[in-house]
Amino acid sequence: MQNDLRGLYSRRPRALWFFRFHCIMPERYGTISQLSLENENLSQTDYEVLVIGAGVAGICQIKKLKDMGVTALVLEASSGLGGTWYNNRYPGCRFDSESYTYGFKFSRDLLNEWHWKEMFSPQPENLKYLNFVADKFDLHKHIRLDAPVAQMKWDECARIWTVTLEDGDELTSRFVITCTGALGTPTMPSYEGMNEFEGPSFHSYYWPHEPLDLTGKRVGIIGTGASGIQIIGDIADKVGALTVFQRRPNWSVPLNNRDITKAEMADIRQRYEEIFAVCAESNGGFDHLPDQRVYENVSVEERRALWDALYDAPGFALLLANFRETFLEAEPNRDLSDYVAERIRARVNDPQVAEQLIPRDHGFGMRRMPMETGYFEAYNRDNVRLVSLLDTPIERITRTGLQTSEESFDFDVLVYATGFDVMTGAFDKIDIRGADGQRLKEKWQGSPTTYLGVMVNGFPNMLMVAGPQSVSGSTNYPRAIEVCVDWIGALLEHARTADLSRLEADVDAEATWTQEVIDMQEAMPFSKVKSWFTGFNANVQAANAAPRYIAYWGGAPRYTKILNRVASEGFRDINMD
Ligand code: NA7
């Protein structure tokens, strides 16, 4: 019986085992002898660790737990693994991280075997990759699909979590690790008449899984964030007519995607260590490092040459391989914004439309920048029209389309690319009750507080991968996830060695970390810009809501250093017994 709690806490297994069940449900579990009997037939409703979510984080986490010999189960709400890459099926959905920086690095075999076919791999291929990983490491049997979690309740006496699924099933575990993702809780606007539209209408996250033929169709799309911009660039030349309803425009630059040949992939495989070393050094966890020159020491012509090259380079190059000052200081940022505005004007034929596509309320890089493929050229097509909601707001959705303050539109299909309740949304959906019955949603009302984005005081034995206030939300997701999963592995190993069954972040340590998160965000030039970077979503928060602190902006290297220091000092900010 190595794969149960007795395996993890081997020095006093029976005492712990008895303690928990006798303590919580004496009537149900009865006497010691009955207990022993039941232990022999351990039904799989009890685990050392329950993991919530089988996306990129959950897959990485279960692999780690499996390697550690821990009995664990992943509970996944959807009917397939993959999280974001299972759910988002909209046309044009793809990475904007270079594919070879997005894959897991925990296995050399895996790196050697997988061929990324495009620089920025599309959703179907990404889902295939995650299933390939699950197949290769035999993870499917540790994942329960169609298992949305409704409630998690901590039992202080037994030191276990009881996790209740939406269908009423109950499971128990010593630890729960949440891997619920940053962008899995879509938000809809609240326009009058939304239920009346007679054609297909859906959030981009719920784009139908079965093929949806848009040929000749009149399509309306609301929202021009990363999802909307990918969709528009992809479908403009396939639909009959496309009307884009844009509220605030976003800066966007070319993704510059292309195929990766076999020879290139062979070279990438040789250089994986080098590539991941760059990612570890980069604040954003990407394969881009900033230009080291001082902005004011570089001539206007040289700056221009760099920007031209970066505009044509893959991915986030213009944002991340630029002079540091273009992100951090007002004037350089204005210069760069002017440059990008000029590029937009050069690509959009109608000057009035071009001006509507250029952001005025924030500088380049001050919100999460969508990457585009043919997005601006789409507006040069006769079948594509831009409607600025700043000029003519939507008044209501109708049976056949929608009505703005000026005009009525008819559509066959209506798409809401209206964003997500980022980071905390997935937690709010679950009724999480910690010690003393405290509700996490109430504790996090306003803004979350965490210890390192991994633990929460008052919620013992709950660990978060890519949780609020971790660095995951602000960086190349899998790079941060692997750091976090390794750290959690070390913490569980530490608990196992020291025979500990209750881990809780110290209240003062949590306050210190939350202050660090606040300080880092406030130091960012985008801290006053309303966007999901600053925890704002107009469909969830009131326009005058106070800023929220949902991500750590101190950069991946600093975050990793802090995690490593905490581990090397024996996790002393975590109360353990
Ligand atoms: P985003 O980036 O949050 O974008 C949502 C878009 O929807 C944005 O343009 C919003 O305009 C618009 N929006 C939201 N609500 C409304 C209403 N009520 N009316 C009109 N327009 C609205 O979400 P995405 O899905 O595009 O991208 C999410 C992340 O996925 C992205 O950052 C990547 O990390 C991957 P607003 O700017 O609020 O005026």
> In one word, what is the shape?
globular
Question: How many individual helices?
Answer: 22
Beta content? 5-15%
> Which radius of gyration do the C-alpha atoms yield?
25 Å
Low-confidence stretches: 1-42
Mean pLDDT: 92
Largest sheet, in brief, is: 8 strands, mixed
Q: Count the beta strands.
A: 20
**Could you say which structural class the secondary elements and strand pairing correspond to?**
alpha/beta
Question: Ions, cofactors, ligands: which are bound?
Answer: ligand NA7
Distance between the termini: 24 Å
Helix content: 25-40%
How does this structure look, described?
- The chain has about 575 residues and is α/β, with parallel strands linked by helices.
- The protein contains 22 helices and 20 strands.
- Strands 1, 2, 3, 4, 5, 6, 17 and 18 form an eight-stranded mixed sheet that branches.
- Strand 14 and strand 15 (about 410) form a beta hairpin.
- Helix 5 packs parallel to helix 20 and helix 15 (about 330-345) runs antiparallel to helix 16.
- It is globular and about 70 Å long.
- The two termini are about 25 Å apart.
- It binds ligand NA7.
- Ligand NA7 binds near residues 204, 227, 247 and 389.
